[in-house]
Amino acid sequence: MKTVLKELKKTFSIDSVLQQKDRTWFITVQREHAVPLLNHLQSIQGFTHLSLLTAVDRIEDNRFELAYILFNHYEKVTLGVNVLIDRDNPVMDSVHHLWRHAATHQRELNEMFGISFPQSPRNSESFILEGWDSMPPMRRDFDTKEYAEDRFFPRPGRTTNDPASFMKDKLYPEGE
Amino acid sequence: MKKKDRSRREFLENAGLSDPEKELFCNAKPRPSKTLGKYMEGFLNWSRANSLWILGYGTGCGAIELRPLMTARYDMFRYGIAPRPTPRQSTVFIIGGYASVKTLKRIVRSYEQMQDPKFVMGLGSCTINGGMYWDSYNTINRLDHYIPVDVYITGCMPRPESIIAGFEELKNRIRKGYTQGANQYINNFDWYKRNQKQIIKDWNMPDYNW
Amino acid sequence: MNGITSAHHTHTPQAESSLDFDSGKYVKIWQGPQHPGVTGNMSLELYISGSEVVQCKTHVGYLHRGFEKLMERRRFIQNFPLVCRICVPEPDTNEFLYASAIEELAGIEVPERALWLRTLNLELSRLASFLMWIGGQAGAFGLGTVGQWTMAHRDFILDLFEELTGGRVYHMYMLPGGVRADLPHGFDKRLLHVIADAEKLLYEIEKVVFHNAVFKKRARGLGVISQDMVDTYGVVGPNARAAGFARDVRKDSPYAKYSELDFDIITGTGSDAWERARLRYLEMHQSIALIRQIMERMPGTGPFYNRPPNVLHWEIPPGQTYVKAESSRGEYGYYVVTDGSMFPRRVCVRGPSYAHAVTLLEELIVSVDIADIAGLMVSLHTCPPEIER
User: pLDDT under 70 in chain C at which residues?
Assistant: First the structure.
């Protein structure tokens, strides 16, 4: 696997390589080279199975980090490909021509994060939420507790047993 | 025989439907049903309590403990409880656990299609105060703001024995005469509708699903 | 490596042909969420001509609770009661995967006996899930009694779970660092008795289901998954094994104690509903044999829990990992990202039905009779809660 990755580093701009476990690797690649790299991995290197396509909201860097998790059934190796895209204008090329079920993952990312994949079929249809009018819910700046207390009618009488506030009240009852 | 006073009939707006669709749906406002005399109602309540047919709709997690009820070990059929596939033939609507916004729209639709008298059982703590999804952006916190609830069964999820105990409680309530869930819904219709429409944003069905 | 030709361009999907839906030849019906003919809470928007389906769109989202967002708000240890509720019929896989992802990122060792107990739990829950499945598969074709038998027997397995962990359906048994409790006194005798009864029940089921003319006629040729569809559509689990691929996460990326157990991967010849049912039936026997092996090989005594650091103030160094396990439906995966704080940064759950129930179903359902849709969905073993979490 190490030799394969060394060769790939020459052709595609791979930023970092990390071996997480015995047979699990994570690499980071530049956005322009992401889909050609996935195509290469699928057709030539034998990573024919796409397990997962998801995103992490790196709000402190103002980026989204996409993660494509691939599996090679011949060598039994899992490879995660991380791609950083811009958070203010999140658009990415689709891979549904390589794996058909990627269209579903891409629809969900569009709804949950706001990342659009323009060539993907049925991309702007709502997948999970119905009648949603607020910002994409999985982003870090969406506060779900505030939304739930505001929109739904919480039953009064709920107390919290949050350990931090409990210990603070116990140790410093008169305040800081 | 008195002539029916049709001029007093109220009509609903049905704002969520397009104009060609408005002709397909009934827009009459529902009216509360009357109860018969004391002894007749007592006999009817006895018969209702002993044949509670539930709607076969597993709205959430709680539905997994409904299936063992139908096996020989817990045997709900001996109580007269049978699952029915359509709301027109069922009496009790069991809301099994949490209800997401998308499911709430279908719950309202199925509930309104059931015939009077109808009862609702809330299973699990998610119907009471939101349960462990209390801060979720997609699940409701209090079920009784949207449809009237007769009996709550606590647990996460309740065992089949607890569900049978809940049914016993419901039967006792029906025998005592607390059968006015449907009338409570119709008498406070505006309040329930306002709550529902606050949550359900795309209301593309009639205001009352006859 | 260069001799591999990818077969992903040879399959032409039927669902993309253009049809004129205003011509009056097609009727649109919804097989909606409240329907005995869908597995769980999802709905199908069907266009039918006569009684054959020409196009289908699946709608999911009725069970969406926003797990991934909720998990970011809770500490690592507070997520354990939440995680098992993602997949309702088979919650143990979720607990195991979350626990092993956290252990890997935090560097916690799990003692021997705990790994054996985890394997036992996973196999028992696989068996319980398969029992529920075969009740559904037979019931979809009209053989309703089988469902009653299997749900009743699954209840005995749930009794065992209750004795071991305290809960019938949701166990919360596998914590980071091990398991919560050891086997009670006399548990192994009761377990082996229940397993022997399950085996007898399986022989009965074979006689009733697989020698039944109605089942054979309806299930043969229903929902055929060809070999080149498997990788393109992301098919995993028994659906892929029935098409001839020897793929099993327990052998490809061994976890818990599967590397020390003897078992073979069961494959089929051509994946239609009949072959998939047959394969799952054989896997049920395999699960029973594995449980017996585990009870023989498990060490008698030993610690079952390695206490992690103070769980309420537990910070895990930044990292990411992907762990997977073989649930009764296929490959179940968890992608966990931490950033050094007390809360997980991102937890993404990949259920096997994610690929099966949306794109694959829309492809396979074309030109299927309406009466067989339920059978097709159950033969793919789709389970909506893990699609939309």
Answer: 1-18
Domain B56-194 in this protein, CATH class: alpha beta
Q: Beta partners for A78?
A: A24, A71
Q: What is the ipTM of this complex?
A: 0.87
> For residue A147, which residues of chain B lie inside 8 Å, CB to CB?
137
Kindly list the domain boundaries of chain A, sorted by start residue.
Answer: 2-155
Contact criterion met (CB below 8 Å) for A12 and A37: yes
Burial A123-145 (b: 16+ CB within 10 A, else e): beebbbbbebeeebbbbeebebe
Q: Which amino acid belongs to residue C58?
A: T
Q: Residue A62: is its pLDDT beyond 80?
A: yes
DSSP letter (8 states) at residue B95: E
B171 falls in which pLDDT band (50, 70, 90)?
very high
Where along chain C do its domains lie?
15-59, 67-388
Give which of B138, B161, B200, B204 to mutate to test C binding, by max C Cβ within 10 Å: B138
> Which residues 114-133 on chain A approach chain B with CB closer than 8 angstroms?
129-133
Whose CA is closest to A82, among C255, C337, C38?
Answer: C337
Q: How far is CA C192 from CA A40, C179, C215, in A?
A: 50, 21, 31
Q: Is C85 on the interface with B (CB under 8 A)?
A: yes
Which residues of B are less than 8 Å from C145 in CB distance?
A: none
Q: How far is C279 from chain B (nearest CA, A)?
A: 25
A135 at B interface, C-beta within 8 A: no
Which phi and psi (to 5°) does residue B167 adopt? -65, -40
Residue range A144-155: average pLDDT? 82
- Strand residue runs (E) in B24-174: 53-55, 82-84, 92-96, 119-123, 151-153
pLDDT digits (tens, 9 = 90+) for C280-319: 999 999 999 999 999 888 888 888 888 887 777 788 888 8
C380–chain B nearest CA distance, Å = 19
Class of domain C67-388: mainly alpha
CATH architecture of A2-155: 2-Layer Sandwich (3.30)
Pairing of strands B119-123, B151-153: parallel
Question: A150: part of which helix (H) or strand (E)?
Answer: helix A144-151
